[in-house]
Each structure stands twice: as structure tokens, then as C-alpha cells.
Amino acid sequence: MPDFPPVPLTLEGSSALHQFFRFDWKAWRSCADGEREKIAGEFTAALNKLERARADAPVRTALYSQLGHKGDLMLIHFRDSLEALNQVELDLAQTRFYDFLDQRHSYVSVVELGLYESSRKTYEAATAKGFEAHAPEWNAEIAASLKRGADAMAPRLFPAVPDAKYLCFYPMDRKRGEQVNWYSVPFAERQRMMHEHGLIGRRYGDVVKQIITGSIGMDDWEWGVDLFADDPVVFKKLIYEMRFDEVSAVYALFGQFFIGVRLPVEKLGEWLEGKL
Question: Using CA atoms, how far apart are residues 135 and 141, in angstroms rounded to an integer?
């Protein structure tokens, strides 16, 4: 497709923030018992407000007990704007519990649906009407197509945090070195590889919920990947199988992996007593 833009179309939805904290157990144990209860209660109340707007609303904030040396607690937030995410940060910072948290890492992104398959059809339809790429008529045609797609995909673009026991999060890039550069591969070849890559993920669709977020221009990597499942071994199997796929084997770079166990807000007090 030499006359088409090389960039695939995307749909964007919720803004996303991942936070990873180390908890200061020594400072916590130095507090009086009654004071600890008050501080934990205040934080639990704050998390309940952040979790969902009302009892029947979707979960937009979730807490996890993190495994490994990278941290102790993880928070995921989905909101409608970056300003709303920033307000979440400020709200948490007002709590006394926040004094015991040392944020070791964070990730800012936006829910993204890649449209390699439909991009080609959309470009071809606009060209068939005689529109030149990026001309006003072309842009209007593309915008109308994206609007139809966004309306149809709204539940995936503005997701609730899945009700699964385990979370695996990792960031990733596509290679763009001198010898291997994803961004210099012809569109049709990238489309083919992404189609084959997606087939693997769909085979795990009944046991893994996946949310992809785009972070180009927002954070250090290009995408963030959230995997939610009730069996953590599934993460290993899915990611391992995908690494044999061409798009991952040749063109993928992966950042750090973070894994956690869902921690219901009402059980934070038990977690603080060493119980999961």
C-alpha cells in the first residue's frame, strides 16, 4: 500500500495510571495500635470512593498485593482524562496512610485498540472515493470511520477493572534499531504479523482478560499490557507461546514484569496484620 499512510489507525479510551509502592513496615509498627486503625480506616474510606462512583458502577480503581522485591502494593486506575488521574494522585496524597508509601514506579497510558485490519479497509475506501491522503475530505472520512468504531467498541475502550484474582503488568516496545525496525516494515507485512499474533491471544480469551494501553509520548515505553486471570500460570503459558510468534520473536522488547494478587479494599486491615 505505497500510497497509504504507514501508521495504523487506533481508538483511544480511558486514561490509565499504574502505581507501585513500597510500604514502610518499620514506621507502621512504630505507630500506636489505635492510631494505626484510624489511619487504615481513613485510607480504606478513600479507596472505596476511588474504587467506584456508586455501588452499581464499574470498578475503576483496584488494589493488589504485589509479589517480589519491586514493591508491596499496586494500584490501577482507569479514568476519563489525565486530569482525573492526577486528581486521584492528589486525593491519595492527602491521606495519612500515604506517608507510609514510597512510590517506586508508575505508568501513565491510555486504553488503545489497534486497528490494523480495519485501517487498510478504511484507507482503501477513502482512496476509492478519490480523496488524497490527509486532505480535508480524507480526514473527514477517517474521522467518521473512527467514530463508528469507537461507538461499537465503547465497552472495551472504557473498561472496568476485571474481577480476577491475579494481575500481570508489563510495558513493551517494538524494535526500531538499524538492523531490525518494526516501523520500516511495509504496512501489509505488519498487518499480517499482527493478525497472527492476535490469534494466539484469542485462544486464551476464556481464561485471560487483556487490556492494552498506549503510552507513546506519555511514558518510557510504547505500550502497557495488563493481563487478568484466576490462574497465574496462564500468564506464563500465554507470554511464552507469544514469544515464538514472529512479531514478538523478532520485533518485541519487554520491560519489567509486575505481578500481584487482588486485595479487596475491605481486607486492607487484614493485609496490614500480615494476612492475605
Answer: 10
This prediction has a pTM of 0.95
| Overall average pLDDT of the 58-65 stretch | 97
Amino acid, single-letter form, for residue 32: A
Is the sign of the CA dihedral 28, 85, 103, 229 positive or negative? positive
Phi and psi (nearest 5°) for 133? Answer: -55, 130
239: how many CB neighbours lie within 10 A of its CB?
Answer: 17
How many other β-carbons are positioned within 10 Å of the β-carbon of residue 58?
13
Q: Tally helices (H) and strands (E) across the chain.
A: 10, 9
User: CA-based angle 204:210:211, to the nearest 5?
Assistant: 165
**Among 9, 2, 247, 202, CA closest to 121:** 9
For residue 266 the three cell numbers come to: 475491605
Mean pLDDT across 173-195: 94
Question: For 265, how many CA atoms within 13 A lie in the half-sphere containing its CB?
Answer: 18
Q: Residue 131 contacts by C-beta under 8 Å, 6 or more apart in sequence? A: 137, 138, 141
- Active-site pick, 107, 166, 170, 204: 170
User: What does the pLDDT average to over 51-66?
Assistant: 94
3-state secondary structure (DSSP) of residue 58: coil
Q: Which of 89, 83, 94 is nearest to 43 (CA)?
A: 94
Contact in structure between 63 and 265 (CB atoms under 8 Å): yes
Is 107 one of the catalytic residues? no
Phi and psi at 171, nearest 5°, equal: -95, 160
Contact 196, 245 (CB under 8 A): yes
pLDDT at 142: 94
Q: What is the pLDDT of residues 90-104, one digit of tens each?
A: 999 999 999 999 999
